[in-house]
Design brief:
Elements (H helix, E strand, L loop, with lengths): L1 H14 L6 H27 L5 H8 L4 H12 L7 E7 L4 H12 L6 E7 L5 H13 L3 E5 L5 H11 L5 E4 L10 H11 L5 E9 L5 E5 L6 H4 L9 E4 H6 L11 H10 L7 E12 L13 H17 L4 E5 L4 E5 L8 E7 L3 H14 L5 E7 L5 H11 L4 E5 L6 H11 L4 E6 L2 E3 L4 H9 L4 E9 L5 E3 L2 E3 L7 E3 L19 E3 L6 E5 H6 L13 H11 L3 E12 L15 H14 L32
Parallel strand pairs: 1-2, 1-4, 2-3, 5-8, 11-12, 11-14, 12-13, 16-22
Antiparallel strand pairs: 4-7, 5-6, 5-7, 9-10, 14-21, 15-22, 16-17, 16-21, 18-19, 20-22
Length: about 625
């Protein structure tokens, strides 16, 4: 490994100053250090396909033509109400060129009913002050207050907030840009969703030459991901009344003041009052002092983020603690003083070696204090399996439920759950191997949180290649479901950090799934009669969702899955009648949801599992 690293270092040294190559090599080196050659190969695989050529994607799908602008203007003219949107911009000594560009991007909005509220935080630059005064004098929609003393960004934002007369507030930095249609889509969202209180959009980055890069195509509102990263971010639009009700921006939270504001607003509203606009409506300026480039530019923001989250947990009486992990935040939820008994249901058939490895790894490595193991045997009939069953049955806290007749795994699990004495169920395939002691503690602590149904784990093959990082609806040739980031080497965070942060998904795999027994029984367990070969776990999670229970995935419960590595099915692959019947049932039962997964984005493709861009996006035409 050291020799390979030295060789790669030499390669970087030779090419470092080649125009346009240095930055890419730096990224490749960081990737290599995190995930090895497989990580580099994974990223190259995403890039060489052409599916992630963002400049071309912007040109084809996100550069409004004159005709499109005219249609948007016509739609504005037909709106019955035009809410005033107040763009709040704290300013301190920005690059004068970028400041002008930021202000002009607001003035060029297709939607006309806006005001720009700027608070200058005692900038020492006379040029900056002159620019702001000139705009305020020439455009009545632009209001400027000059603070006599520097108070940092929270105080400046509150000064800008004092200028607001609109019913909606859009947050903007002094060197970033809004595309011309940004406020139109905000107004359209307000008109389409009368109860909305918080609105956020997708975003990307823009450099000094106005080249766009690094889009974050976000999912719909995902409170668990929001507690792991500020996915709300930009463009963020908030109800003015709500912002004032929570007291505006808090001093002492500088660097994460916007996130803290949204957290406090979120506590007062229902999840359905947060809406996502799946369009890039904000361009972050990338420069050395910008968090668009790196959180290292503002290390105090990290501390403020931890404080914002931890005070949120205190206010909501949630026993949890957040800590920064470099690319986001990890939240650890506390177990009750007396942890509930967990029944681990391990299904098996004629797999002596796998079963023994699974059970031994659970017994030897699991730190969780209270559990029983129920081995549900599916009519094993070979001698090695029978001997293994007899051996594990002799272990403490292990029961074996033998079935004389072979049956579908879904039915087998349902019977085992009925027989379980635990308050919490952990479904475990016999191909699973425990590799870290806290896996069950992590999953149970999440499953016990209010509003949570199923919890899934981070599964890898023995080479540490991801086999499960959550299930996304609509992926693959059958259009039912696929696995997020399948095939990606461990050590990488994935798209937008989504392979390495706690978050909600529409479904998770039952190869390792934890769920409270009462919730499992409330929805009837697995549908063993209709789904006999595939998607029973997806269907279970979706039915939990119907009773307003979230499905969570955590990267902090890591296990090996020794099943042969699966790959997405191709259209040329043979499929059994039963499998095709399961596909047909899922499409009848879940319909349009399969094509509109709230945990995914219409700007990301359904044909691949690596979060490549969609060509074209699945958005309604303008």
């Amino acid at each position: 490994m050291k020799s390979v690293s030295r060789l790669f270092d030499f390669f970087l040294t030779v090419l470092w100053k080649t125009p346009g190559v240095g930055g890419r090599l730096q990224r490749a080196w960081r990737m290599f250090r995190k995930a090895g050659w497989r990580g580099v190969q994974w990223e190259l695989g995403r890039r060489v396909t052409g599916f992630n050529d963002y400049a071309r994607w912007v040109r084809d799908y996100d550069t409004p033509s004159p005709a499109t602008r005219a249609r948007l203007a016509q739609r504005v003219a037909s709106m019955t109400e035009l809410p005033l949107i107040s763009v709040v911009m704290p300013s301190y000594n920005p690059n004068p060129v970028w400041l002008r560009e930021a202000i002009e991007s607001v003035r060029e909005q297709i939607y006309p009913n806006w005001e720009l509220c700027i608070a200058d935080d005692a900038s020492p630059s006379e040029e900056v002050r002159a620019i702001l005064k000139s705009y305020a004098d020439s455009d009545p929609r632009i209001k400027v207050v000059f603070r006599p003393k520097n108070g940092h960004i929270s105080a400046a934002s509150n000064s800008a907030l004092d200028l607001v007369t609109g019913s909606w507030i859009a947050l903007m930095d002094h060197d970033d840009l809004l595309p011309a249609h940004a406020l139109f889509w905000v107004a359209d969202c307000i008109a389409s969703h009368p109860g909305v209180q918080l609105i956020y959009s997708d975003e990307d980055k823009i450099d000094e030459a106005l080249n766009r890069s690094g889009p974050y195509f976000k999912c719909d509102w995902n409170v668990d991901l929001f507690r792991s990263q500020n996915m709300f971010s930009h463009l963020g639009v908030l109800s003015t009344d709500l912002v004032r009700a929570v007291g505006g921006f808090r001093l002492g939270l500088e660097g994460s003041q916007d996130w803290d504001l949204v957290i406090r607003c979120m506590e007062r509203i229902a999840p359905g009052q947060v809406r996502h606009i799946p369009r890039v409506l904000y361009h972050w300026r990338v420069h050395a002092e910008s968090t668009a480039k790196s959180m290292d530019a503002k290390p105090y923001a990290v501390v403020a983020g931890e404080r914002a989250l931890n005070e949120h947990f205190e206010r909501t009486q949630t026993r949890a603690k957040a800590e920064h992990i470099g690319f986001g935040y990890r939240v650890r939820y506390a177990l009750p003083e007396t942890p509930p008994l967990v029944s681990l249901v391990v299904t098996t058939r004629n797999a002596a070696a796998s079963l023994r490895r699974c059970v031994d790894s659970i017994v030897q490595k699991t730190a969780y204090p209270r559990y029983e193991i129920i081995v549900a045997d599916n009519a094993s009939d070979d001698a090695a399996a029978q001997a293994c069953l007899a051996a594990v049955e002799g272990l403490p806290n292990v029961r074996v439920l033998r079935h004389a007749q072979r049956q579908r795994v879904a039915g087998l699990r349902n019977e085992a759950v009925e027989a379980a004495t635990g308050e919490v169920i952990a479904l475990v395939d016999d191909s699973i191997e425990v590799i870290a002691p806290d896996w069950l503690t992590e999953m149970v602590s999440l499953a016990l949180q209010p509003g949570v149904g199923a919890v899934g784990a981070r599964l890898m093959d023995p080479r540490r290649i991801l086999t499960h990082a959550g299930v996304l609806l609509g992926l693959g040739v059958d259009g039912v479901a696929g696995h997020s980031h399948r095939g990606m080497p461990a050590g990488r965070e994935g798209y937008g950090g989504r392979a390495a942060l706690i978050q909600s998904f529409s479904a998770v795999s039952s190869a390792c799934m934890v769920v409270r027994k009462d919730r499992y029984l409330e929805v009837g367990g697995f549908d063993a009669s209709r789904l006999q070969e595939a998607f029973a776990d997806v269907d279970l999670c979706l039915r939990l969702g119907e009773i307003d229970l979230r499905t969570l995935w955590t990267p902090y419960a890591e296990l090996f899955d020794h099943k042969p590595a699966a790959r997405p099915r191709k259209s040329t692959d043979a499929a059994s009648e039963q499998y095709l019947s399961d596909v047909a049932y899922m499409k009848r039962r879940w319909g349009a949801l399969l094509q509109n997964d709230p945990a995914y984005s219409p700007n990301l493709m359904l044909e691949r599992e690596d979060f490549s861009y969609a060509w074209p996006p699945r958005l309604a035409p303008v």
